[in-house]
Design goal:
Elements lengths: L8 H24 L8 E7 L10 E4 L5 E3 L5 E4 L7 E6 L6 E5 L5 E6 L10 E2 L7 E2 L6 E6 H7 L4 H4 L6 E4 L7 E4 L8 E4 L2 E2 L21 E8 L3 H4 L6 E7 L10 E11 L4 E11 L3 E12 L2 E2 L6 E2 L4 E14 L3 E13 L1 E2 L1 H5 L3 E21 L7 E19 L4 E23 L2 E22 L5 E5 L7 E15 L2 E16 L7 E3 L2 E14 L2 E12 L3 H5 L2 E4 L2 E3 L8 E13 L3 E20 L7 E2 L2 E26 L2 E14 L4 E2 L7 E9 L4 E10 L7 H5 L1 H4 L10 E12 L2 E8 L19 E9 L1
Parallel strand pairs: 1-7, 13-16, 36-40
Antiparallel strand pairs: 1-4, 2-3, 2-5, 5-6, 8-9, 10-15, 11-12, 13-14, 15-16, 17-18, 17-47, 18-19, 19-22, 20-21, 22-23, 23-25, 24-25, 25-26, 26-27, 27-28, 28-29, 28-30, 30-31, 31-32, 31-33, 33-34, 34-37, 35-36, 37-38, 38-40, 39-40, 40-41, 41-42, 41-43, 43-44, 44-45, 45-46, 46-47
């Protein structure tokens, strides 16, 4: 077979990384030379009831990265604070978030916060409007997971941290994977972001995948999830919603150099986890740095009931991250970031147990991200905040496989290198008018190889990879989104233009080149019924452009299915309507949302033939075409009630009904009715506890593809995916510099499998983590 001559991908990646880091260093020193003095803004934060100082309160200048945290005495200082009127946002765990607009000469303040055990509608989101806003004021359904909640849950992986959260179903094909399902959509119909940079790339595939699990939960500051289309602000793939992971950011110090850090160890019973992470943070007036390293070993899963150990499911991973902030002048900040995570020997349990393989491992799974961001803000209302980000993202997925009773070992390797540039402007032309505008460009290059080696003869045969080696994809967009307040109403409207080009140069199949473009828009109205109630209705259009995976895939995609390349594909489209209401009072908070989505031009697999046969390697041959139309509708509800001081009850429930109109059957992988109920206790002494009951109903609305999927079929009972419920307990205590967290999962040891997953849930198990700060 002829093989295209491409540069060695490792050399290409190393050159890019080296050039990128040299640019970072040069840029940092150039901008650092521009440092100039400016005024300082300071204050003290206290508990409203006790008047005691509060440590660790986050003070942020709205529409900028200027911010800091209060010290042990409750005091804080933001150096190089620009002149003019600005709004600061104050937030702390266990307290109601608030905003305060400062006068031009107000450079020292006293802030008092009111304690609150409730979390719902009492948080800050960046993702909803591409700028910071209180979730209660956002006319969208939002799920926020804070750093404090991440620590308390002690989740093994980032996807598992999202389990049981409002409106989010998490499917796990294997132990090293995990895909959020939002409003019935999954995979390349949900957009993943890391610090505002797309994680979705040219080979991001249809259906469940593992990409979110390549983000170390230890580096996360918080997770924003927008439930509903985000295509205007974020572009292709955001049909079902957007999940953004925000990494930890160091703080500038008030006066002298501050050095701090922490070390964490985690353990899970039955050898299911042994993890360690170390972090360090440095802060001065002009420079701040944070870095961390994690080593994590995961054993095989001990499932519930009589299922026992799931072998093989265990693997190990290593990750590191660093973030550097430098002040430039009176109102600018340069941020330079590097992140890398690598997982080794990650098994596909379903393929080994039911798929006919003796070996099926991902080796390796790697995510690498570098970016440099410069941002500044000014008194100019049309240029209140300006930010430019350049990024390099590298994704590597290797697969080693060997079928039962075979001496042939197949090795596949797919690598995608992505260069991105984003420019964003936040404007406030008038006190009632807020605007987010920008442009972005991403360029992906795909390297794909495969070979088969006979273990006896040692003969190696070079084959076509999963994709055409050297394929490229580019994505350019401009957007503008507006909110305008009139009395009790807020009107929102936005538009985005996207131009995509995908080029596939294939030595085996025909070359392809597509250049689709799309206009999308949104329109919404929110009403402030009173101080405690918000009602809203919105409509959005969205799209997903075909990528290299859609056009060029050649290989096994699931049990019994072999996919060949497709041609002539066009973007998938969506039209969504949502209405909802939000409540927020001192002791009660809740949301209710109803939505409906119409999908058209869906890209779906249809029977095909290859080399004159409808079978290849014992599997049916399929290819993708724009042949689908579907409708989804659903309801999401959540509530948080303070029973007495420090004790609250919370709950959420989600239901989605989806129909594939074209096939006249249910859509694939639609979650059943699911939700949770929990009781939360938080004491001022540092002790907290939580009991949580999570459940899912049976799923009897199965598509033909679901019934033939071994991941689902193996757990069906009379053609129905059974319901399940589990009880989890969590507790922890913080004393000075020590924090210990404990958890007990599935206390009644129920055997269960999350619908559409390839592995079963944890059985009765215990976990513990210890964090020591210095």
């Amino acid at each position: 077979m002829k093989r295209r001559n491409n540069p060695n991908s490792e050399v290409f990646s190393n050159i890019l990384i080296s050039s990128f880091m040299r640019s970072v260093i040069t840029f940092v020193f150039v901008m650092g030379a521009q440092l100039t003095g400016a005024q300082s803004f300071s204050g003290i934060v206290q508990d409203r009831e006790t008047q005691t100082p509060l440590e660790g309160v986050h003070i942020q200048v709205v529409n900028s990265s200027l911010g800091t945290s209060s010290g042990q005495d409750g005091k804080f200082t933001i150096n190089d604070f620009p002149k003019g009127m600005h709004t600061i946002r104050i937030s702390a765990v266990g307290y109601a978030s608030m905003e305060r607009t400062l006068n031009e000469d107000e450079m020292e303040v006293m802030i008092t916060l009111e304690s609150s055990a409730m979390l719902l509608n009492n948080a800050v989101t960046i993702t909803a409007q591409r700028s910071e806003q209180l979730t209660f004021d956002v006319s969208q359904s939002v799920t926020i997971l804070s750093a404090d909640e991440l620590i308390k849950k002690s989740s093994r992986s980032t996807p598992e941290a999202l389990m049981n959260e409002s409106g989010i179903w998490v499917q796990k094909t294997n132990h090293g994977g995990g895909s959020p399902v939002i409003r019935g959509l999954v995979g390349n119909q949900v957009l993943l972001l890391v610090d505002g940079i797309r994680l979705n790339n040219a080979t991001y595939r249809y259906g469940p995948n593992q990409y979110l699990s390549t983000i170390d939960p230890g580096m996360i500051e918080r997770i924003d999830a927008i439930r509903g289309s985000g295509s205007v602000l974020y572009g292709s793939d955001a049909l079902g919603g957007v999940v953004q992971v925000l990494s930890k950011t160091p703080s500038f110090s008030q006066e002298k150099l501050d050095v701090s850090g922490n070390a964490m160890v985690k353990w899970m019973s039955a050898g299911m986890e042994q993890s360690a992470r170390a972090e360090v943070e440095l802060g001065s007036k002009k420079i701040a740095f944070a870095g961390g390293f994690s080593a994590r070993n995961f054993g095989d899963i001990l499932a519930g009931g009589s299922l026992g150990m799931l072998v093989p499911t265990g693997y190990n991973e290593r990750s590191g991250d660093a973030k550097l902030l430098i002040r430039t002048g009176a109102s600018g900040i340069v941020t330079a970031v590097f992140q890398q995570l690598t997982q080794h020997d990650v098994p596909r349990y379903d393929q080994v147990v039911q798929g006919g393989y003796s070996v099926y491992n991902f080796e390796p799974q790697t995510r690498q991200l570098s970016y440099v961001r410069w941002e500044t803000f000014s008194k100019n209302p049309w240029l209140q905040s300006f930010r430019v980000t350049t990024s390099f993202n590298r994704s590597v997925e290797g697969i080693n496989s060997q079928k039962n009773n075979s001496n042939d070992v197949k090795k596949q390797r797919d690598e995608v290198n992505t260069i991105g540039v984003i420019a964003e402007i936040i404007s406030q032309p008038s006190p009632r008018w807020n605007v987010q505008s920008g442009a972005e460009y991403y360029f992906d290059k795909v390297y794909s190889t495969a070979s088969t080696t006979n273990l006896i003869s040692k003969e190696e045969i070079i084959q076509r990879g999963s994709y055409a080696d050297g394929s490229t994809a580019s994505n350019f967009a401009v957007f503008s989104n507006h909110q305008y307040d009139v009395n009790k109403f807020q009107f929102s409207a936005g538009a985005r233009f996207n131009a995509v080009m995908v080029s596939v140069q294939d030595d085996v199949f025909d070359d392809q080149k597509i250049t689709p473009n799309a206009w999308v828009g949104n329109l919404g109205i929110a009403m402030k019924i009173n101080k405690s109630i918000r009602a809203f209705v919105s409509s959005n259009t969205g799209f997903r452009a075909p990528n290299v995976d859609d056009m060029s895939k050649f290989g096994t995609v699931e049990s019994g299915v072999f996919e060949i390349p497709s041609s002539g594909l066009s973007p998938e489209k969506s039209v969504s309507v949502e209405t909802g209401i939000k409540f927020y009072k001192e002791k009660f908070s809740g949301t209710l949302a109803l939505y409906q989505t119409h999908l058209s031009d869906l890209i779906d697999r249809v029977p095909a033939s290859y080399q004159g046969s409808d079978m290849y390697e014992g599997r049916k041959v399929y290819q993708k075409l724009n042949v689908g139309e579907a409708r989804l509708r659903g309801v999401e509800a959540e509530v948080d009630i303070e029973i007495v001081k420090s004790l609250s009850i919370y709950s959420n429930i989600t239901y989605t009904y989806a129909e594939n109109v074209t096939k006249q059957e249910p859509m694939r992988r639609i979650p059943p009715l699911f939700g949770r109920v929990g009781l939360r206790y938080q004491h001022a002494s540092g002790f907290w506890a939580k009991a949580e009951w999570a459940a899912a109903g049976e799923q009897n609305r199965l598509a033909a593809g679901d019934k033939s999927d071994v991941r689902i079929a193996v757990r069906l009972e009379d053609g129905v995916m059974p319901s399940w419920s589990i009880l989890n307990l969590y507790a922890g205590y913080t004393y000075e510099s020590f924090t210990i967290n404990l958890n007990g999962q599935n206390l009644f040891n129920k055997a269960y499998r999350v619908y559409a997953s390839g592995i079963d849930g944890y059985g009765r198990s215990m976990g513990a983590s210890l964090i020591v700060k210095f």
